[in-house]
TrEMBL record:
GO biological process, one term: L-methylmalonyl-CoA metabolic process
Annotated protein name in UniProt: VOC family protein
Pfam families the UniProt entry points to: Glyoxalase
Residues covered by the VOC domain: 153-278
Keyword Metal-binding listed: yes
Gene3D superfamilies xref list: 2,3-Dihydroxybiphenyl 1,2-Dioxygenase, domain 1
InterPro entries: Glyas_Bleomycin-R_OHBP_Dase, Glyas_Fos-R_dOase_dom, MMCE/EMCE_epimerase, VOC_core
GO MF term list: metal ion binding; methylmalonyl-CoA epimerase activity
Keywords from the named record: Metal-binding
């Protein structure tokens, strides 16, 4: 079985790349390359890019890319039904090879190997947080500017699918993803409608999820999510994006499943995009739970999403 080791990027088609680039810069990304027909944006981490967009006549989600660990993984994936041959990622930042596969609902999922790491900057040393029990910040004031907060990396994305079980099986067969938690219909714990999936690195600690797969009647993307440094970064970006006139979708709050502090926005084309920080980290000993509540019950504090948030 092939194994994904990291989520790398999401891919969209939009009608105006210039407008999208302006928004993504304000959201905390930098241009990594592109042309009049294609745009690559990166964060401050080592991924050569975290967001790819192509210009087209309509706005739609295309797919995403996951990193795999070896060429043997690509060779195995290329033999599966619906897979492309192994091909060079010509023109994309970082180079390397990929196999492009199509999920049951048509999403294009890339397995990527030998991508040259970008020269990511070291994570910023955030100031210590003084709690009631411990006060490590001494003789140092907090001074946070309301400005674009650099995103570090793609943390996860959420897919709406028409057949949950078939889609999860497709992803697990190709990438060895593991379930971290399950969503069930409200009051029906045996009726699983969503799976939080994570990469499998054995005893190594990984994010609670790299993907959420949700059963709905209308396939598409729910959102893509990018990690920022800390709570100050979330709040500074929140105020900055409001001042720039962008549309707030839901935030700020803390999720129940995964525990992330979240802030959701709408890009100029209506797609939902998230800043997050302080998510759960798990290893192979983690045991999945089942949550059988409504969307507005998935928030511990802060802005509650509407009940139809995941529909």
């Amino acid at each position: 079985m092939s194994r994904a080791i990291d989520p790398l990027y999401v891919r969209y088609q939009v009608t105006n790349l210039v407008r999208l680039e302006g928004f993504l810069r304000d959201f905390g990304m930098e241009r990594a390359g592109g042309s009049e027909q294609r745009l690559y944006m990166r964060g401050t981490g080592t991924a050569p890019y975290v967001y790819e967009a192509v210009r087209g006549s309509e706005n739609r989600f295309l797919g995403a890319g996951l990193r795999v660990s070896c060429m043997q993984d690509l060779e195995a994936l290329a033999k599966l039904k619906g897979s492309s041959p192994i091909e060079a990622t010509t023109g994309a930042p970082g180079g390397g090879w990929r196999v492009r596969m199509r999920m049951p609902d048509g999403f294009e999922i890339d397995a990527v190997h030998f991508v040259e790491n970008a020269n990511g900057s070291a994570p910023a040393d955030g100031l210590p947080f003084n709690t009631a029990a411990s006060k490590p910040r001494v003789n140092t004031a907090v001074r946070v500017r309301r400005e674009a907060s650099p995103v570090r990396r793609l943390g996860h994305f959420v897919l709406h699918v028409t057949d949950h079980d078939a889609s999860v099986a497709w992803l697990r067969e190709r990438f060895g993803l593991l379930p971290s938690d399950f969503l069930a219909a409200p009051g029906q714990p045996d009726n699983i409608v969503g799976s939080f999936l994570r990469v499998d690195r054995g005893d190594e600690q990984v994010d609670h999820h790299c993907m959420l797969v949700l059963r709905t009647d209308s396939p598409g993307v729910h959102h893509c999510s990018f990690e920022v440094e800390n709570l100050d970064a979330v709040m500074a970006a929140h105020d900055y994006l409001l001042a720039r006139g962008y549309t707030l979708d839901c935030g700020v709050g803390r999720h129940l499943l995964g525990s992330q502090i979240f802030d959701y926005w709408r890009d100029p084309f209506g797609f939902r995009i998230e800043h997050y920080t302080d998510g759960d980290i798990v290893d192979r000993s983690h045991q999945p739970s089942v949550f059988a509540g409504t969307a507005d019950e998935t928030t511990q504090w802060g802005a509650k999403p509407p009940k139809d948030f995941f529909e």
